[in-house]
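TICKET #2291
ISSUE: user wants both folds in one file
ATTACHMENT 1:
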Amino acid sequence: MFSTGARALFRREILRFVRRPKNTFLPPAITNVLYFAVFGIVLGGRIDRIAGFDYILFILPGLIVLGTISNAFENASFSIFHGRWNEYIHETLTSPLSYLEMVVAYVAASAVRGLIVGAIIAAIGALFTPVTVEHALYLVVTMGVISVLFAGFGIIGGLWARDFDDLTVMNQFILRPLVFFGAVFYSLEMLTPTWRQVSRLNPMVYMVDSVRYGFLGYSDLVPLTSLGVLVGLTAVVLTIDVTLFKRGFGLTD
């Protein structure tokens, strides 16, 4: 069980984005309405079914992944960086919380935001196409893992960033391109063998494929292997987070 202080920090981080729904929940909702309208309806009507699924249904898991990890990353990175920028993070650092409790509080709150956005996107998708869940437990575990993973990445980004532009660069020019090349809009089976192997170097492929398996029961990879890769990567990232907090990286500059 974590201390009262850790729960208070978690609650503060939750309230920080819940109190501003127009900034946190409305933009991804509008963006995904456009995604579904353009890619699902306009282009989907001109594209053959992929792996036996309507195109709009096939891309749904990828869009959920994109929204979930983008918001988990953004929440953690902004919260850490904003605390550094305005120097109120020192209050957290001088509290009796352990470094593990600090990291868990920031990561858990950011993961919650990512999961909420993912649920919103799923609900929007259900307005455009019937949505089924073939492997509910696998899907829940996978969504939890990827949201925690990118919340952990967000902490690293928030500690590394030197100005607000760095946060934008990481999210818009590194994270999103990797997702779009992570088999969101296509199946790996559509690629040549060479590019299929190259795609396996992109961690986003494992996330999109895992969530797609949870929803549709279809996978280009081995589902348990993909989940194992994601769990291992998450453990490494969280360990790095705690280590950076202990060393004061970016916190004592």
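ATTACHMENT 2:
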Amino acid sequence: MLINKMKYMKDLTNQERHIVEYILQNPETVFKVTANDLAKLTYTSSSTIVRLCKKLGTKGFPDFQLQFALEYKESNLKNQLQNAGVGDNKEFLDKVDSIPFIYEEALIQTRKRFNVEDLVEIINWLKDASRIEVYGVDANYYIAQQACAKWNEIGIHAGAYNSVNYHLLNNTKNNSKTVSFVISHTGTNKAIIDIAKTLKSFKRKVVAISGSKHNDLAKLADKNIQSYYNDENPHLIKIFNVITTQYIFDVLYLGILEE
């Protein structure tokens, strides 16, 4: 993912962006030069080169050279760059190449927000649960169905819902042994908040999946798993929401399987 970071990282200075553009346009030069040589070629300084390498997640210029060489060989960057300049396909190919980086950002940022102690406690609840329920609307409902399908395959009774099923609530023998997930990345979806309130009134353990620790849904739930909610680019919100929610449920699923 080093090449994608170079192409799409936003918090670079003008000098760092100039260095990145030089490397992407002259990739094989990187294998033959020192940091000092590259600084001269880009009219910058060796300290700027090293700082950029560390910002990109490598330990320094030699480590950057190694990782770049391995990725360059695997991805054939030269052909990517040549193809990206052909006619009207450039913009589309840029979007294609950006998707793995978008996924990576969603997963890494969600991982940073995990409270491991809470996750372990939730997994213990799931192991002891007589039933799991997942509530979501719109795209979250379909993610809920996928999560429940995995649990059902390993013998855990799970169901997905987009509204309250009062008949089920009134006829569940042991509500305290049921774990209910409610999904709203903004934490302000009225339908989901109303569902959470109803579940709480039936003594359910309620776990929220939302983008903040401090929204109404998180405050209402017994536990909150914080997802990565980024509204800076409205066109990417749906992608971030889907990827982060699937990731969270997969973490819980693997947590159960570990035993």
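RESOLUTION: both attachments delivered.
EXTRA DETAIL ON ATTACHMENT 2: The chain has a mean pLDDT of 86.
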